[in-house]
């Protein structure tokens, strides 16, 4: 039976479409990671999706002193597509984090995409460890 | 942490309480545990905006404090009963005479206050009399004297504050009457993964307050809650406990709305008891803003 596999592939493809059409992500691909039963999406958002609060403060300080805006290039993100009705465990999340390659800098992170039946997708940033929140 | 002075936690009907103000401040300064103030007045307990000592600690906090050898737990009911029954005549007499001394001190203070009030009223009356003799054109002063006379800012320092301790016949803590080590409960840290997130956060210097206000188990502060805003709303889960995605969406969204991150975490149980415990894994969740 490829039932469960088809299911997660369908969820991933719905999220893939949403990222491509609604959020203008580029270079999108669906990848299967060794050791993971679910496919992962990788893609480039139109602008940097996450900036650590300390880097945010440093960027603001730089802008104030130099009078120029700091340029933050967008980074590739890993997206985990799940359906809203699913239940996950800490061990599942840990397995996903462990299967992904190390981050360029800072903590490992994924974008958790939760798909609902009405095709709404909500996106959450999940990071490994206790990472202090951004000061929106 | 001072190695000698362990903090005494009283276990009373399943709750963990700390009564001694010094112990409370030591917990806060040295073990980043602030607890929750739960003490109130014995009568009309709801007619009281602020709660005071004792503080109540969560079972997992107590567990962490025992593991790190900061505190010990005593069966306080048994300790009190045995202290009451085993009181030798000498200490009994000393205790009774100390109560009598306090009573006398209180009576003396009351007498002084009354005498003071009486002398003020008398001098006011005299003044009024003189005023009336001088001229009869001050009709309003007489009305005010009777009830507000004692409150007039007439240069006398308010006597209340200094006598608070003198008048306290009922002590707030039985520390002087119960031997601190009596009926200490055996140290047996729970051999489960439950409470591991709390332990992990206490160990890394975070403070916690109850998180119900934000729909979670803990509000987690990077320092003393009086100085910092909370960084996380945290929930502990078992390693294989199912977490509905809707809970992550709800928790993540609420946390982001109040400038926090939603934290989930727990520890993987070790395969055999003698193996090294695996580290606590935590995940911080924020709304991605898209």
UniProtKB/TrEMBL annotation, chain A:
Species of the source: Hypocrea atroviridis (strain ATCC 20476 / IMI 206040)
Protein name: tRNA-splicing endonuclease subunit Sen15 domain-containing protein
Domain tRNA-splicing endonuclease subunit Sen15: 15-136
GO molecular function, one term: tRNA-intron lyase activity
Keywords carried by this UniProt record: tRNA processing
GO process annotations (BP): tRNA-type intron splice site recognition and cleavage
PANTHER family (alphabetical): TRNA-SPLICING ENDONUCLEASE SUBUNIT SEN15
Signal peptide: none
GO cellular component assignments: tRNA-intron endonuclease complex
Short name of one Pfam family: Sen15
From TrEMBL, chain B:
Domain of life: Eukaryota
GO MF, any single term: nucleic acid binding
Compositionally skewed regions (Polar residues) per UniProt: 158-177
SUPFAM superfamilies xref list: tRNA-intron endonuclease catalytic domain-like
EC number: 4.6.1.16
Keyword Lyase among record annotations: yes
One GO cellular component term: tRNA-intron endonuclease complex
Biological process (GO), any one: tRNA-type intron splice site recognition and cleavage
Domain tRNA intron endonuclease catalytic: 204-264
Catalytic site positions: 221, 229, 260
Listed InterPro entries: tRNA_endonuc-like_dom_sf, tRNA_intron_Endo_cat-like_sf, tRNA_intron_Endonuc_cat-like, TSEN34, TSEN34_N
Positions of the TSEN34 N-terminal domain: 7-76
Alphabetic keyword roster: Lyase, tRNA processing
Chain residue ranges for the region called Disordered: 121-194
Protein role: Constitutes one of the two catalytic subunit of the tRNA-splicing endonuclease complex, a complex responsible for identification and cleavage of the splice sites in pre-tRNA. It cleaves pre-tRNA at the 5'- and 3'-splice sites to release the intron. The products are an intron and two tRNA half-molecules bearing 2',3'-cyclic phosphate and 5'-OH termini. There are no conserved sequences at the splice sites, but the intron is invariably located at the same site in the gene, placing the splice sites an invariant distance from the constant structural features of the tRNA body.
Family listed: Belongs to the tRNA-intron endonuclease family.
Protein name: tRNA-splicing endonuclease subunit Sen34
Organism: Hypocrea atroviridis (strain ATCC 20476 / IMI 206040) (Trichoderma atroviride)
